[in-house]
Amino acid sequence: MPPRLLLPFVIMIHALPVLSDDDLPQAARRRRAPVSEVPQDFGLSYDPARSHARVLSDGFGRFHTYLRISLIEHCNLRCRYCMPEEGLDWTPDEHLLTNAEIVRLARLFVAEGVTKIRLTGGEPLLRPGVEAIAEAIGALPGLQTLAITTNGLLLPKKLDRIRAAGVNLLNVSLDTLRPDRFEEITRRQGFDLVVKAIDMAVARGYDPVKVNAVVMAGFNDDELPDFVAWTRDRPVEVRFIEFMPFDGNRWDDGRLVSYEQMLERIRAHFPLERLQDGPNDTSKTYRVPGHRGRIGFITSMTTPFCEGCNRLRITADGHLKVCLFGSAEVSLRDAMRGGATDDELREIISAAVGRKRARHAGMYNLAEMKNRPMITIGG
To answer: What is the average per-residue pLDDT within 179-192?
Structure first.
């Protein structure tokens, strides 16, 4: 085992952003504001003392109780909004977090106040030993929700085992209700298997099963009414997601269908009743009277919900991202492998959370800035 690093050295090395200002276009560098800058329409004030009060608090008083852990970068689909068409150079297995490292970090975050953990990927069900990881995390005292986001292809084989392991919330990605279009979006077959997985999850008592659909103009936006009709007899929550810019997904605003546009199109076919959302909810939820299920809108681009953000992410290679759209990352993997104690990890995490900005840079700025492809962040 290598000698243990001294704490100041660990913090100095691992607080460095993986993507520096030199990686940003010149225009984006000019727009980069200090962490303490508060937009005029932002509902929270900044006080650096708040970030010192608790490990998972930032300077705006946001306390982060939701952790997303990516288990793997690989996926058995090639969705156009997630995976660059030319493919990726995958991180070697030895640079990914081990099962023990994943559970150690989960235990530490739960001890500091995290109550919800979501396992993501890539496709998390491709991770060898995913059931054992879920069982170990699900047993942590204080954890209330253990969720998985999956494309559903492996779910019929693994559903009963991950349910027994403690997974009590499921999100399944499905961007179309047409088999031919499914192949066009994902570059793979498997539509019938995904629908079967959703129906199996409903039969096992998951209520609701959340179904994530990225909406793209000229591609699947004509299916908005079909998805809403789909909620008539199924206890599902279809969540319509605005198309977001990430490396390699060829984002442009011509393919973005905004929250207001989606609402207008759906209301032409169905009456909608607005539901009450929680203070940290990402989805603006509605229901059609008489339907078993409901719908929601994740409006990250046109109506950001950064004031209520309580989410942190750990990538499959062990980097902590305090914002999905931020380029700065902290390597918890390297700190652990360098011998960092739990207290030293807490200091690294606290420093990273304390640097979280008020709001992401806006969709046009994000389209110019470097970030990982979505598949290597964790969906």
So the answer is: 88
